[in-house]
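Task: sequence in, structure out. Protein: chitin synthase.
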Amino acid sequence: MRVEENQVALLPRRTVWQQFTKVCTSFIPSFILRLFGMKSKEMQSAWREKVALCWLIAFACMFLAFITYGLTMLVCKPQLTYTMETMSEISTYPWFAARGKIFRLDPGSKLETYSGSDISAMFKINAPNCTQAFPSYSFSKIGSYNMHDYSEVAPVHYTWSSILREQLTVIGSGVYNTNDISLPEKLQTLQGSVDATRASESLSPKELQCFKELCYAGELALQSTGCQITYSFLYLSALAVLGLVLIRFFLAAVYSLIMKIKTWQLVRKTTDVLPVVLMTACYSEGREGLKSTLDSLCIQEYDKKVIIVVADGFITGAGNEASTPEILKSMITPKKDCAASGMCTAPKQYISIAAGAKKLNYAEVHAGSYSVETKSGVVTSDIILILKSENRGKRDSQMVIMSFFHHVLYRTRLTQFDLDLYKKIKGLTGMSPDQFGAILMVDADTTVRPSAVRIMARTMQSDPSIMGICGETLISNKFDSWVTAIQVFEYYVSHHLAKGFESVFGNVTCLPGCFCMYRLKIERKNGCTPILVSPTVLHAYGSDETKTLHEKNLLLLGEDRYLTTLLLKNYPKRKLVFVPSALCDTIVPDKFSILLSQRRRWINSTIHNLFELLRVDLCGTFFFSMQYVVILELFGTLVLPAAMVFTLVLVISSFIWTPVWIPLFLLFCILGLPSLLIFFTNFNLFYFVWLIIYLCSLPIWNFVLPIYAFWHFDDFSWGETRQITGGAPKDGHGGSSSGEEIDYSTKATLIDFEEVE
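Result:
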């Protein structure tokens, strides 16, 4: 047995963070929190952490506002300069320009017909340097008007667009008009040049001064140093964001095409050699939902598999005729040879994720077969039911299986439950449990397409560096309500753009718990190396101590994403990838209240997991790395509400005032490029309809949901996703009400692995 290098545990003590939260909320003493129902220190600590995080988010939003608006106002103060264009817009009186200055005309003046024009040629020229530099030169055109007879308003300035349009010449910061004057032969070399600064260096000082006296038209409208720095920073920021958007789109599109070709080749040529466990965890689902999931697992086009269903307590869902475990038992056919060999189904003891006396739980193991009728006949698969006596949560259901394979691969002591499960897997499948190399985790409301397991297993089989795979999750109830409709394109983009791009680096930051496959171990010449069930992963993922808000968000709300984070942290050189050809269908929330609760959990767990990923050694260097992407994603998540407000201000102001094209182009790329992915992925033009619906719902995604999630940082409940008869079980999911400090795991009966063999 080998343990890979660089394995490290997570969840360190965050004393510095806790002290910081106390400072941020020091103006509210603990007795006031107790008056509002926060009796325990843990509740008070969670509330203080929430407020501290909200302060950080507020500062991040203010920083974005300062960069967007305040920096320009502070550093780039408007300069009082007049161009021909601005004078035409703001002037309330007749005026003209001559020799680089703007003059005011009195009503009834002879020159009023020339108002708004440059009439330098109509005025006398004072050019003493020309007489000295070019004694034989005579002026061909000299005006008769004198500038001293008119009221000067201000110097005239020219923008580069005006210079190019009127074919003017620039020397240094001065602007010169060479169009309507006959110059000495030596000065004619400057005519026709936009920027004649270098060419003017060949002239003597008097010759250059002569040119300026003859042709001076005004000054270049230059930005101040502050404005130049500000705009350079803003343009570089926009370029960085635009570059990331374009690179993400390009790499995601290329990855999708390459993976489709690769998958087609794998399915045609490769044979199945990797035994896979198909695991689904359920809680209060009814017969119809369970049947659709088990049917899809049973008819998988993959032979080396066993289905394991873990029921989290004897819970009766609202409207169900019986508890979920009873429904499951009625759906399988018990294996006769297992019963004959004395494999009883009495509850067996195991160590669960809980505190105090709840550390010990019991579970029944039922071995049998599951059959489904298809067009080509009846298909039967081996199935094992694990029916836990008490509810401990989804993470505990996963840990039941992960801990079992950990004990088997490391050949350590087994609990009574592990021993029972070991015998029934071996008796049912004819294979030793340590032969299984991967595990597919599926939610009980998910239907897996027939070829999905084969595609995922063969992809993992073809590349030993892959330790986790997810496929595309499609929405089966997309037409149920407006709530389901707004989620269709969001699901599509999160897979094909986000996960597709991350797969290029092999660093998918979230393998969805509803449909993903993990590698249990890597076979080597001298044994095997556990991956998913390595000690460091199990120790962190199976922690029953969640003292800080950060730990609670990781372990209680976002366990699927956290498991991904753990794998990336412990195995930075291995890959987590997305396979677009592996498909499943799931049911999404059809009511806004349920969506609100679900996204509260997802957004909060995303933020806390991204904080963890900042400490992970992801691939790449500096700005060309996944670390840079994670930083931008974290900052983008924190400032989503502010960004949404700024976006609306930008769009509305573009209809009222002159549009600011660079931010608008950036916005178009961010929102428009994902639509082009449709042509590279599924070629379903109906997705353009889902895109329009998604764009209309952006205020919900980017403002309503994040604001709700941020204010509920200290809410660790799962909401009303599934109703059960009689309400939620008291102290479920491993909570302890006893407050005992006894380590009940030491009371578990353990069996040496050698005795099993």
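The longest helix spans residues 225-269.
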